[in-house]
Please model this.
Amino acid sequence: MAARSTSFRLGDQARQRLHDRAEREGVSATALLERLIVEGVDTLDHPGIVYRGPDHDRRAALAAGPDVWEIVARLRELEGGEEERIETLASETDLHPRQIRTALEFAARHPDDIERRIARNEQAIAESRRAAEQRRTLLA
Model:
């Protein structure tokens, strides 16, 4: 989506805090403001979801739990219908079924982000397995 110019009037305190934080993170105030808006709206739309990680690797997670992509990946591994999988995952972890549903709802609204994160993780696992096999072959 193309960027469009939008004008906002910020109070002095908000402008200074935005500038100070952007400077600490080494990003422009505009880039930080854009990230804060997107993440802020997501957290308003999905109570219990927070964002973690450095600026170049932000990811959605449960406030008191794992990343959303991790929950979706584990649910995919389980057998049964949606509610059966949720109950199984809840019994395996300290997560309440409500938290799992929150993560699943977020994932349903942001499927491309979740799919990319899962694919990245699967690629890292495959690379790790290849490296382990190369080490075993080297030492044989």
Observations:
- The chain has a mean pLDDT of 94.
- Helices lie at 12-25, 29-45, 68-77, 82-92, 97-109, 111-139.
- The longest helix spans residues 111-139.
